[in-house]
Structures are given as structure tokens and as C-alpha cells.
Amino acid sequence: MRETISVSTEQAFSAPEGSVIFYYYPKLDESELACGEKALGVSGFALNWTNRIGFMDAGSDLLMLVLRRDAICDEDYKSKAHLVEAPLEPAAFLADWLLSLLKAASQQTYPYARENVDDVLADVITDRFEFLFQKSVVCETPQIAEAEKIYKKMRDRIFDGPDRPHTVRSLSRDLGVSAFDLRASCQSFSQIPLERMLTLLRLNGARRDLLRARCAPRKVSDIAMDWGFFHWSRFAFRYRSLFGETPSETLRG
């Protein structure tokens, strides 16, 4: 898959069990695929990437390939969670090759059975990336992985449903984590202060419910209050600043 992203966004990554992800991320700055996991270069392999969260910068251009883990690495890697940095020059060459395959897949017709072509391509792709993996360097799992766990628990708790407006203190009690650790984990993982992150998550929750309300009508004001926004004009301003439209425009579709 290849994905280009025009705005900064949070994304969920969940590779199938027993897989390895090759990634090529040609953005020469401090961007990260999964927060706290900075590859030394812009390409590499990620293991055990199930239910991960990453923050993608504006202008991101990401290429990812899913490979069977047992096809490219031995048993020593199967229980470890880390990144493997791929040498940039051959990785860039293979990335360009993959992009050409993606383009050809939507244009080319074959005079023989397509499944035969797919089988051959699968073997060739696996062989080339197994060789690249063998030339790559292991990066240890970063300590920030613990901060990611706390952030995910907080995020999931908020999106479970707005049974009440969430505050730093209520989340701290619900998760059994001190307010200090909650703030520190959010800041180190997302680079966004906790209070700002809570506002962003609540706005996203409100947008989700507004989209659902197109089929099951509800008032914008009720949805806003569900998510802890009690000042209508302030909510509308924040909402429009983030999504480029008013809550009422979202509801109308």
C-alpha cells in the first residue's frame, strides 16, 4: 500500500499476526511511523506491529508492504518487538520497484492466468526483501512503548462512549494512573499537551456522532454536551478550525 497524507493525523497500524512490515518513508525530518520508534533512516522493517498508533505529519508519503514473518526471518525474531533499519540505497531501489508494480497492477493485462503472475511476483518480492532484511540492523524497542500503552488506554476510554465528560482527574481514576504519569505519557508519546489532546479527542468523538446522526437524527447541541462542550459558539469555532466545516454542515452532509 502507498498512502500520502496532506494533514497531520493520528493513525492506527495493525499488521496481521505473524507478519513483518517493510516501510519506506521518504520524509527527511523527525517524523515517526509509530511514536517513539524513530528509524535511523527512512526505511526498515517493523515486527509485532499489532494495534499500534502513529502520528503522521502533513505531507507524509508512506509505502508499506506486508510480508510473512517466517518467510524472511528466523525464530529469534518471532517473540521480539523492535524495528530493523534497512540500508537506504537498496531499500529506495526496492521501494521504487514496488511503486512500479502498484501502477502496473491497475493498467496491465496478461495473456495468461493472473493467478500465475501473482504467485511468481509473491516469490520474487519475498526473495528480494528477505535479502534486504539480512542486510539490515536491529534497533532495540524504545522505552516510550510504555507511554504508548497509557495513551492508548486513555484514548480507548474516551471513545468507549461519552457517559460523562472526561477530565484529567476522572481519566486518572478510571485508568489507575496518576495525573502526572498521564500528562507525561501523552506529552512524550504524542508531543501534544494532555489538555489539548483531550480537546482533540472529544472533537473527534463529536464528529463521529454527528456523522452517525445523519441516519438517526439528533441535535448538534445534544451531541456537543455529550462530549463536554457546554459553550456552543466555542465548540463550533473549535470544530470548524479542526475540520474545516461547522457541526451543522457535518450533520447535513
Describe what you observe in this structure.
This protein has 253 residues and is of the alpha+beta class. It is built from ten helices and eight strands. The chain folds into two domains: 138 residues, no CATH class; 108 residues, Arc Repressor Mutant, subunit A (Orthogonal Bundle), CATH 1.10.10.60. The strands form two sheets. It has a six-stranded antiparallel beta sheet. It is globular. The two termini are 29 Å apart. The mean pLDDT is 82.
Keyword list:
10 helices, Arc Repressor Mutant, subunit A, 8 strands, alpha+beta, two-stranded antiparallel ribbon, 2 domains, about 250 residues, six-stranded antiparallel β-sheet
Summarize the structure.
It is built from 10 helices and 8 strands. The chain has helices at residues 69-72, 88-105, 114-134, 145-159, 168-175, 179-190, 194-212, 220-226, 232-243, 247-252, and strands spanning 2-5, 9-13, 19-24, 43-47, 52-56, 60-68, 83-85, 137-139. Keywords: DNA-binding, Transcription, Transcription regulation.
User: How do the helices and strands follow one another from N- to C-terminus?
Assistant: EEEEEEHEHHEHHHHHHH
> Helical element count?
10
- Number of structural units classed as domains: 2
> Cα distance, first to last residue?
29 Å
* Widest beta sheet: strand line-up: 1-6-3-4-7-8
GO molecular function, one term: sequence-specific DNA binding
Organism: Rhizobium pisi
Pfam family, one: HTH_18
Keywords: DNA-binding, Transcription, Transcription regulation
